[in-house]
Each structure stands twice: as structure tokens, then as C-alpha cells.
Amino acid sequence: MDCKIKQARLAAGLTQAELSRRFEIPLGTLAHWEKGDRTPPVWAEKLLIDAINRINENK
Q1: Residues 20-38: pLDDT tens digits?
Q2: Backbone angles phi, psi at 21, to 5 degrees
Q3: Under a CB-based contact definition with an 8 Å cutoff, are residues 58 and 25 in contact?
Q4: How far does the chain reach from its first CA to its final CA, in angstroms?
Q5: Which of 10, 17, 25, 24 is nearest to 55 (CA)?
Q6: How confident is the model at residue 59 (pLDDT cuts 50, 70, 90)?
Q7: Which CATH number fits domain 4-57: 2.60.40, 1.10.520, 1.10.260, 1.20.5?
Q8: What global pTM score does this model have?
């Protein structure tokens, strides 16, 4: 299963570190989500992806 957060992040041209800083998500947490080691709450994943997509739209 491919990580939707990672797909959105890459489409927006952001590194994990940039996304972590911008949304105040611990880098380790983000890395675990992207690797599939852990799963974010569905509501949090949706909000984060929507926010990343808005960044990409404003480029």
C-alpha cells in the first residue's frame, strides 16, 4: 500500500523535514507513517493531505 501522505508531499515538492516543520509533526512520526510502520488517524491523514494539496495548488 502506497502512502497517500508521501504521494501528496512529493507532489508538493516537500521533504519530510520541511513537512515536519511546517505542520509541527515530529519527523519520526511522519517517517513511520510514510513507511507504514504506524498509521495516522483517518481524520488527521485527510486534513494533512488536504493541506499539502493546497500548498501544491498555490505553487
Answers
A1: 999 999 999 999 999 999 9
A2: -65, -45
A3: no
A4: 28
A5: 10
A6: confident
A7: 1.10.260
A8: 0.89
